[in-house]
Structure formats: C-alpha cells, structure tokens
Design brief:
By secondary structure, the protein is mostly helical. Helices cover 45% and strands 8% of the residues. It has eight helices and six strands. Helix 4 packs across helix 7. The longest helix has 28 residues. The structure holds heme C (3 copies).
Length: 172
C-alpha cells in the first residue's frame, strides 16, 4: 500500500516537472515581435500610419494637431516636453501654421526644413521625448510597445547593412 503511494507521488512529481520544463521551453522560443525585424511592419510609412484620421474616434493627423497648436496654442504637456528637449530655444507656445506644407509634402521630411539636426529645435529630440516620457501613461509605449522601428527602419539586406533610417510618408 505504502509502496503504491510512493510510486504515485514520484510519478506525480515527474509530471509536474515535465509540465514546468515545457512551459519554460515555450517561453524561450517566444521571439519579441519587433516591427520590420521579426514581424511584418504595420506602419511602413512611419508617422502618417499612426497619426491618421480615425472616424468615430479622433483625428490624429499632424496637420490637424499643428493647426490646433497654431490657432489655440500648444497644450502644457507638450510645451513641457519641448522645453526640456530644446533648452536653448525660446518658445511662444504657438506653432507656425504649416498645415498646408504638412498635407502636401512627406513627413517628417517637411518638418526638417525648420527642425534640422543643427537647428535650435531638432526634431529627433522633441519626438524621442514626446514618445518616450510618461511610462505606461504614454500611448506610444502602451499601445505600440515603444519600438524604435515604429519610426526607424534598419537595413539588413543591402550592403552596407546595419544602417538606420527614418520612415517617411504622406498624409492622406
Ligand atoms: C506607432 C505609432 C506612432 C508613430 C509611427 C508615430 N507616432 Fe507620434 N504619437 C503616437 C502616439 C500614440 C502619441 C501620443 C503619446 C502620448 O500618449 O503622450 C504620439 C504623439 C505625437 C505628438 C504629440 C501630439 C499628439 O498628437 O499627441 C507628435 C507631435 C507626434 N507624435 C509626431 C510624430 C511624428 C512626426 C512621427 C514620425 C516621425 C510620429 N509621431 C510617429 C504614435 C505614433
Ligand atoms: C516653417 C517652420 C516649421 C515647420 C515646417 C515645422 N515646425 Fe515645428 N516648430 C517651428 C517653430 C518656429 C516652433 C516654435 C513654436 C513656439 O514658439 O512655441 C516649433 C515648435 C514645435 C514643437 C513644440 C511645440 C511648439 O509649438 O512650441 C513641436 C512638437 C513641433 N514643432 C513639431 C513639428 C512637426 C512634427 C513638424 C512637421 C510635421 C513641424 N514641427 C514642422 C517651426 C516649424
Ligand atoms: C516617433 C518616432 C521615433 C521613434 C519612436 C524613435 N525615433 Fe529616433 N529619430 C526620429 C526622427 C524623426 C529622427 C531625426 C531624423 C533627422 O533629423 O534626419 C531620429 C533620429 C535618431 C537618431 C539620430 C540622432 C542624432 O543624434 O543625429 C538616433 C541615434 C535615433 N533616432 C535613435 C533612436 C532609438 C534608439 C530609438 C528607440 C529607443 C528611436 N530613435 C525611436 C524619430 C523616432
């Protein structure tokens, strides 16, 4: 009787060990879903694929946002982030109205005419700050997992490989 109980215990323990090992093996096999690297890129045109007009929800287009900034002024949270990103720039809190430019040209190329790397307001600093501040409260992090490759593409095919670019696209 006691032998049978011992055997049952051992068999039971072996089952549990096997199950645990299988779960760990599955975990190890799981590859992070990095857009354009391990899975298809759902936003190949960068900015404009996320900043779209979504009927019944909101108009997320940058032309709409920047028109709002040019007419009503910039909201405090964005101003705070812009000041931190561009400590030497003097900001009024009103964006020039560039909606026409944004609609007719590719983004973010068109932004770079004023927000170039060597200007006092380089685009990358304000964009990295806006999309990465605030942890889980930031929708870029919580809804899009914060991947660099949402905006950047990494060239792994055409030598010289390993180069990184910014994706571009036109608003529709
Ligand atoms: C994968 C989706 C995604 C991509 C790609 C993306 N953004 Fe965003 N962006 C967001 C989200 C989500 C927010 C809101 C972040 C928050 O919750 O504070 C945001 C916020 C912003 C804001 C602040 C104003 C606003 O609309 O909330 C600007 C400006 C902005 N993005 C510009 C850009 C530009 C320019 C690009 C391309 C270089 C870009 N974004 C690419 C998702 C994206
Ligand atoms: C014609 C030049 C010009 C273009 C084009 C332009 N900007 Fe700006 N941007 C400015 C100036 C000037 C400011 C400073 C506004 C102020 O005084 O607050 C600014 C400020 C900003 C700010 C900080 C908030 C604010 O208004 O102060 C963000 C974010 C920004 N720009 C994003 C963009 C993006 C994204 C694009 C392209 C879709 C773009 N800008 C295109 C000139 C431009
Ligand atoms: C919301 C879009 C967006 C995201 C997300 C993003 N970038 Fe960028 N990044 C840009 C843009 C736009 C530029 C500026 C391109 C230019 O000036 O020509 C840039 C420029 C850069 C540069 C060059 C800046 C320099 O010093 O000249 C580096 C490096 C970079 N990004 C790294 C990253 C890394 C690492 C991540 C992820 C942690 C990331 N980026 C995520 C939009 C983004």
């Amino acid at each position: 009787m006691q032998k049978k109980l011992l055997l049952a215990t051992i068999v039971g323990a072996l089952f549990i060990m096997a199950a645990v090992t299988m779960v760990y093996a599955e975990e190890a096999k799981k590859v992070p879903e990095i857009p354009g690297i391990t899975v298809k890129d759902a936003h190949p045109n960068g900015c404009v694929d996320c900043h779209r007009n979504v009927p019944d929800r909101a108009d997320y287009r940058l032309s709409t946002k920047i028109t709002e900034w040019a007419t009503k002024g910039v909201d405090d949270e964005i101003m705070e982030r812009a000041k931190a990103a561009w400590p030497t720039a003097s900001l009024s809190g009103k964006h020039p109205n560039v909606a026409g430019m944004i609609k007719s040209q590719k983004i973010p190329t068109t932004c770079l005419s004023c927000h170039g790397e060597d200007s006092s307001k380089p685009l990358y600093r304000v964009l990295h700050t806006i999309h990465y501040t605030g942890g889980a409260d930031n929708h870029f992090i919580s809804s899009y997992k914060g991947f660099c490759t949402q905006c950047h593409s990494v060239n792994l095919k055409k030598p010289p490989t390993g180069t990184m670019e910014v994706k571009i696209g036109k608003e529709s």
